[in-house]
Design a protein that fits this description.
The protein is mainly beta. It has one domain (1-91). The chain is 0% helix and 33% strand. It is built from no helices and 9 strands. The strands form 3 sheets. Strands 2-3-6-7 form a 4-stranded antiparallel sheet, with no helix packed on it. Strands 5-8-9 form a 3-stranded antiparallel sheet, with no helix packed on it. The chain is globular and about 30 Å long.
Length: 91
């Protein structure tokens, strides 16, 4: 399934991805060029800016974000419970 999304839309892809602008999300594949959004997919990735996230594989070039996507990611803070002061809910 491929979801082509626009501003203000919410895509439910095994979780949810909020406020995606001009991007294409492939379930089980990748999310490209996310800007200032929250992606919940078995964990979450907050405020991704111009990065490529491979859900279920890895997250590349994340800056100042929290990501928990099944495998190792760069620059992450992994929490087993809700992160204080965050909009991220780790499932």
């Amino acid at each position: 399934m491929v979801c082509k999304l626009h501003i203000g839309n919410t895509a439910h892809i095994g979780g949810r991805i909020e406020r995606i602008d001009e991007h294409t999300a492939h379930t089980g594949g990748r999310i490209e060029r996310i800007d200032e959004h929250i992606a919940h997919n078995g964990g979450c990735t907050e405020d991704i800016d111009e990065h490529t996230a491979h859900i279920g594989k890895c997250t590349e070039r994340i800056d100042k974000h929290t990501a928990h996507i099944e495998m190792h990611t760069d620059n992450i803070a992994h929490r087993s419970s809700r992160r204080k002061g965050s909009r991220c809910h780790i499932w």
